Amino acid sequence: MAEYQHFDGETFITFDIVSVNERTNEVQVAVTNRGKISVITYDIYTDEDGEYFEYGCMYEKIYLKDFMEA
C-alpha cells in the first residue's frame, strides 16, 4: 500500500491509498489522524506539478507522486 505522512502544524497525518479509480478520477484513502482512522474518497485534480487531492479545511494539496510503497 502506498503511504504518505503530512505534517499539519501540530502532528503527522498518515494517508494510505486504498484504490485509484481512473474512470471517475477519484482516489480512496485511509486517513489516520490523531488516532482515528477514516476511509475517504477524494476527487483527483491535476496541475503543473501532477495529480493531487485536497485535504482539510485549508484544501492542502496532497500529491499522489509523494506516496511511497510501505
Structural class: mainly beta
Rg result: 12 Å
Q: Give the proportion of residues in helices.
A: under 10%
| SSE order | EEEEEEEE
Q: Poorly predicted ranges (pLDDT <50, ≥5 residues)?
A: none
Strand content: over 45%
What do the pLDDT scores average to?
Answer: 95
Instruction: Using the alpha-carbon principal axes, give the shape.
Output: globular
Distance N to C terminus = 6 Å
Tally of strands? 8
Strand order of the largest sheet: 4-3-2-1-8
Task: Produce a short descriptive summary.
This protein has 70 residues and is mainly beta. It has strands at 2-7, 12-21, 26-33, 36-43, 45-47, 50-55, 60-63, 68-69.
What does this structure look like?
The chain is mainly β and 70 residues long. The protein is built from no helices and 8 strands. The strands form 2 sheets. The chain has a 5-stranded antiparallel sheet, with no helix packed on it. The chain has a 3-stranded antiparallel sheet with strand order 5-6-7, with no helix packed on it. A hairpin with a 2-residue loop joins strand 5 (45-47) and strand 6 (50-55). It is globular, with a radius of gyration of 12 Å. The N and C termini lie close together (6 Å).
